[in-house]
Design goal:
alpha/beta, Nucleotidyltransferase, domain 5
């Protein structure tokens, strides 16, 4: 039977079916009726396992609904810390971030990695060639920077991510665009140059946007978190169900 993987983020929910550790059809939902979305995905097929990684703790009502929609439920959130204990990840990591790192060290086994997650936040994490977590940084994501600049500087407009970016800017709008986009590019380049031997992996909603602007050789894995969740779920099935 197939498993259903669910990644509940800050602004959107991603879901995917998986067979063993291989991802199948994926879905994306952005709205407030998260449980309704999950019910719609499972109404025609009952998963063996529903595996949920969430940036927030699920309510008891949500957990009960999920248990009723599958044969086995595995939750990775602050109330269920045991699921990641076997992977050597520190407990301060968010569970979606940890799942991405499980995928990275599996996909690039034997290679040291720098993993960039480019979303509402910009996270940078390091793995050595043995897959051991070395630490990481958290910064402000691209779209969050645009919003913050407008919110805290009354004279500056709210600007969206540009399709093309002038450098340097020659107007207020293009100066904001160039300042934020170029600033992130310089930030990324500095991280890459600090560990030039590492495999570089981009994931997150803005991964492709910045990958197109890179001169370095990188890997873009948009569903890295779901891939990690598929690996974790497959190992859970092999240990506890089969």
């Amino acid at each position: 039977m197939a498993n259903l993987l669910i990644e509940i983020g800050n602004t959107a929910v991603k879901a995917a079916w998986s067979e063993e550790s291989v991802l199948g059809k994926t879905f994306r939902y952005q709205g407030e009726k998260v449980m309704g979305f999950i019910e719609s995905v499972t109404e025609k097929q009952t998963p063996l396992v529903i595996a949920v990684v969430s940036v927030r703790e699920l309510t008891s009502e949500e957990e009960a609904l999920l248990r009723g929609a599958c044969q086995y439920l595995m939750i990775l959130d602050p109330a269920h810390p045991d699921a990641l204990s076997a992977y050597g990840m520190p407990d301060y990591l968010s569970y979606d971030r940890a799942a991405s790192l499980v995928a990275a060290k599996t996909l690039f086994k034997g290679k040291s990695c720098t993993v960039f997650d480019l979303g509402n936040t910009l996270t940078v994490d390091y793995l050595d060639s043995q897959g051991r977590y070395l630490g990481g940084n958290i910064s402000v994501g691209c779209r969050t920077r645009f919003k913050a600049l407008n919110r805290y500087s009354k004279a500056l407009p709210l600007v969206d991510m540009p399709r093309d970016c002038k450098f340097p800017g020659d107007s207020v709008q293009s100066s904001i665009e160039s300042g934020i986009i170029s600033g992130i590019m310089f930030e990324i380049d500095g991280y890459i140059r600090s560990n030039p031997e590492n495999i570089v992996i981009f994931t997150g909603g803005d991964a492709i946007y910045f990958a197109k602007r890179m001169k370095n050789s990188i890997f873009v894995v948009c569903n890295l978190g779901l891939m990690g969740l598929a690996i974790i779920t497959d190992e859970y099935v092999k240990k506890n169900i089969q």
